[in-house]
Amino acid sequence: MERKKIYNSLKNIISEKRIVFDESLLEKYYSDESGNRFSFPLLVCHPENEEEIVELIKFSNKEKIPVIPRGRGTGLSGGAIPLYPSIIISTELMDKIIEVDRENFMVTTQPGIITGDLKREVESLELFYPPDPASLDSCSIGGNVAENSGGPSAVKYGTTKDYVKGLKIVTPIGEILKFGGKVRKDATGYNMKDIFIGSEGTLGFITEITFSLLPLPKYSIDLLLAFERIDEASNAVVKIIHSGVFPQTIEFMEKRALEAAKNFLGNQMASQKGEAQLLLRIDGYDREIVDKSIEKIDFISSKLRCVDILVAEDKNFQEKIWKARRSLHDAMVMMSVKREREDVVVPINSLSELIKNLHLLEEKYKIPIITFGHAGDGNVHINILKLKEDDKNFEKNIENVLSEIMEISVKLGGKLSGEHGIGIYKRKYMKLVFSEKEIEIQRNIKKLLDPDNIFNPDKIFL
Ligand SMILES: Cc1cc2nc3c(=O)[nH]c(=O)nc-3n(C[C@H](O)[C@H](O)[C@H](O)COP(=O)(O)OP(=O)(O)OC[C@H]3O[C@@H](n4cnc5c(N)ncnc54)[C@H](O)[C@@H]3O)c2cc1C
């Protein structure tokens, strides 16, 4: 069907003001933050409610035109990128909180709200929605559910899936389903809502989400620990968790990441010491327990070769010690002409083994590999850098480097992605993790919901 004809048909479903047809305005919908393009969006629809989504999806089904749900386009695995000429359905206008239920500690929301806005809104009521992806001020909560996003606080508080209690979904053929609700326990039938969490926009359009909340912690203290050796930093992670202290975050930066941050920040670094640093946040409702946790961490660190400890309680100093970690994305961009980012996850006691193997890969292929990330949950961000435009070695070897990283992670008992998802780029590695049968079962679930394969087709599985 011609683009103009599609446009004319869709005008019967939603106001033409909310359909993007002009090719120059479609630019930003070609890709997500991974930056690659594959095909073009036919047009973009901005529905305001679930009924419009149902009709848009029914139309796509009738005409067999691929349809792609899109939040704010910050994804890193290509989930929102059209692989074929497609209709994009954006949630940008569906950004309202439907209800904050203070008695039940629940919030129900539309999918398009920016995650940080939702967090701030509930915090103003002394309530806490813990998941904190680094992109929280630009991504949507629906995108977070579709990717099962997490952030530094996953060590203590878990990821998005741990808070989703209810979901409303429009299926790929335009039916409305509702799973879960405002209950903290639910043993009624299959745990269906979890199939949609992390399904990367391939099984249905999430139109409403109910999240559980916590009371807002009163105290929050940060620690920066610098270690003489990388394995001692990862040893410390295991020992701290075993001691019964549950930090909200345990972030890891190896020396090369610290050097990159220093080049970016100049003399604004709180500490440059050590082969590796850990950044911890201890939070809680009881000051005495928070103080005792800090004493325990201090004791554990003193038994290892910890060369610097900084404790930050006031906001300014906290900002200062987090600055290096927060600057790493920009620091990597500044020092390279191109980079590949991986977010494999391994059991926490395999972290130093993973990093050792990455250093060997770096030597083998002569490509800089810099790691940092969420040490407390074994999810490491691996940055493979191309430093110069004319560096042919990078292009020649990058595919081998990526494959070896996936193999190493799986061998260590890990997985391909901790938070960014499979999308387009990691489909070819799924066989490392799943047997033929395990893949077939997942494909059959997709087929059952999307018999004509028009809903975000060919993502996750090749
Ligand atoms: C600088 C930076 C830092 C980041 N840090 C983190 C981090 O710390 N942790 C982390 O987990 N991720 C991180 N990300 C990745 C990204 O922000 C998350 O994956 C986020 O959840 C994507 O949300 P979005 O609204 O931008 O979704 P999009 O990119 O628009 O879409 C992502 C996927 O979700 C699907 N989708 C979106 N909305 C819906 C819906 N309503 N129904 C069904 N499917 C839907 C899309 O089809 C697509 O497959 C980071 C990204 C950047 C650029």
How would you characterize the overall build of this protein?
This protein is of the alpha+beta class. It has 4 domains: 3-90, Uridine Diphospho-n-acetylenolpyruvylglucosamine Reductase, domain 2 (2-Layer Sandwich), CATH 3.30.43.10; 104-215, 2-Layer Sandwich (Uridine Diphospho-n-acetylenolpyruvylglucosamine Reductase, domain 3), CATH 3.30.465; 217-328, 2-Layer Sandwich (Alpha-Beta Plaits); 336-426, Alpha-Beta Plaits, CATH 3.30.70. It is 36% helix and 21% strand. It has helices at residues 3-10, 23-26, 50-63, 115-123, 141-147, 154-157, 193-196, 230-242, 255-265, 287-303, 315-335, 351-365, 392-411, 430-433, 436-449; strands at 19-20, 41-45, 67-70, 86-90, 97-101, 106-109, 127-128, 164-170, 176-180, 205-212, 214-215, 219-227, 249-254, 276-284, 306-312, 338-342, 369-374, 379-386. The strands form 4 sheets. A 7-stranded antiparallel beta sheet has the order 15-12-14-13-17-18-16, sandwiched between helices. It has a 5-stranded antiparallel beta sheet with strand order 5-6-10-8-9. Strands 1-2-4-3 form a 4-stranded mixed beta sheet. Helix 12 runs antiparallel to helix 13 (392-411). Bound molecules: flavin-adenine dinucleotide. Residues 32-33, 68-76, 79-80, 91, 111, 133-135, 139-140, 142-144, 146-147, 149-151, 200-201, 205-206, 329, 419-420, 456 line the site of flavin-adenine dinucleotide (FAD). Residues 37-216 form the FAD-binding PCMH-type domain.
